[in-house]
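Help! Submission page says 'invalid entity' but I think these are all valid:
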Amino acid sequence: MSLGETPVHLVTVSAGTSEPSTTRMLADRAAHAVVTRLRESGRNVTTRTIEIAPIAAEVAQSLVSGLPGDTVQTAIEQLADADALIVSTPVYKAGISGLFKSFFDLVDNDLLIARPVLLAATAGSPRHAMVADDHLRPLFAFLRAIPAPTSLFAAPEDWSSGETTARIDRAARELVALVVSGVGRHIAGAGWHGYQHTFGGNATRAQRTAGDIDLDTDLMRLARGER
Amino acid sequence: MQFGIFGVGDIAPDPVTGLPRSEAQRIQDTIRVAKAADDLGLDVFAFGEHHNPPFVASSPPAMLAYLAAETAQIVLSTSITLITTNDPVKIAEDYAFVQHLAGGRMDVMLGRGNTVPVYPWFGQDIRQGVPLALENYNLLHRLWREDVVDWEGDYRTALQGFTSTPRPLDGVAPFVWHGAIRTPEIAEQAAFYGNGYFANHILAPHFHFKPLVDFYRQRFEHYGHGRAEDAIVGLGGQAFIARRSQDAYDRFRPYFESYPMFRGSSLEQFAQNTPLSVGSPQEVIDKTLTFQEGFGDYQRQLWAMDLGSVPVDVALEQVELLATEVVPVLRKEMDARRAAGVPDAPTHASLVHAAYGDGQPRQARPRPNTGDNTSGALPYLDSDPAKPADLPRPS
């Protein structure tokens, strides 16, 4: 592989609300590590960051009206184009940010199928260290994404710890291994019809034309008057 | 090309008084709007079905039957008739009856409905909504076309030697539109039978329904009903019209902002991103012409003009502006832009002509003394003797 190939699109989603935000900083450090590793493995990379805080009102409005606003729609399309994701949320009240969850509530169920994802969370206390695995991992399992085995967590004391850097590097290596292997693309491509899809959904990349529709199902036969 | 209005008999609090209309008032208001649409020469009035507050639209056949007597020329339709929670046998009978009362000035739009508790109220399960809709229509289709039906399915009791009465007017089934917003199976069914396909085209981004409409067109051609561009497509829309654009926005804003479906949305953004047209007659015309550009030539355009809390006087004024300022221009423009050979939406007259040419249409005459549906004889003097009833044998 060479740097001349189609670049990997790495998209970071951060639900941090402060400025500067440790949630964003953790995501950025992970993104830096991922980009470095990808380049070492001979892949070109483009990166993009979706900050949810500036579009918070539109996220909420999209949820209650059922109609994604322009900025939200653009963000969802950027997610759809991602080859790999880094998602990062602050911990509030012992769980992930409601803003983060609301944004992913707007995403079609099949948008991230078999997409490699690095999970990250930040909190004010190490007592919340399992939130990334207890809350983010099930969410991305539901979306049929492929979370990297190692997730990231940073409490205040972790920012001065060399272990944090080592952990970030380990998680980045895992994500890069998943991307470079092409396993996600293989899974989604080989089993596409086996997943539930929303035809003409607001974000899905597939199921937009007749060619995407399986006509050989029990329901399709019933539609044609057969039993 | 047919132009008309559709509604679901919904009631929302008036943004000024905070009070909702009474059900009695809403029903009378709907009737006034329908009669105005008829007087003003619109082609279609369609009325929906819902079984829970804040809707009054629980009985479209009753409404359509009344309007059949009170109107002169307008085609009466539904938006929609629930093909899931209604027994298809009752749908066949009710709408064939209304078709007689309306002199054929009636068609039906079928849909699944999306209110979870409504299904168990009628003994059904929303998780089976799609197969229910498909199977029920398969039966309905036959009940209107075959004098004697033997049938067995998963969702209702089997039928043996059953005759749905009355037979459709002139022996021609009411034309059916399948309303769907997300299910390719429903589009496939509409295409298979050569029926119409209606996208509600409201409350969703502009052209959101185009992939489904394109799929229906492609399959319509596949089943040999004509070219893809001849497929029978209907679109919804919503409009608020004033002579000056800014007046339209100013007057519509309180109703829009207080309406539960639009909560939190900006009227300007909603009008820009969805099929909602707000503005002068010319702006509504221009926006509607983009529907034709985007979806191709289509046969029926219905607008929601009295959603929720718009007072009846405003609704009547809206229908008048639509019928006098917007539709005449659209008729001319759309006809001029329409590709050669694209058919109109079927009407009762065109269906009768297709079935009989210049011959006499059927007027079904039952045989005397066979009124029990189980006597074994063919129930009509002119029933097809090639298809005898298959009746249960006595054990």
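Support: the input was valid. A stray whitespace character was the problem, and the output above is from the cleaned input. Chain A has one domain: 8-198.
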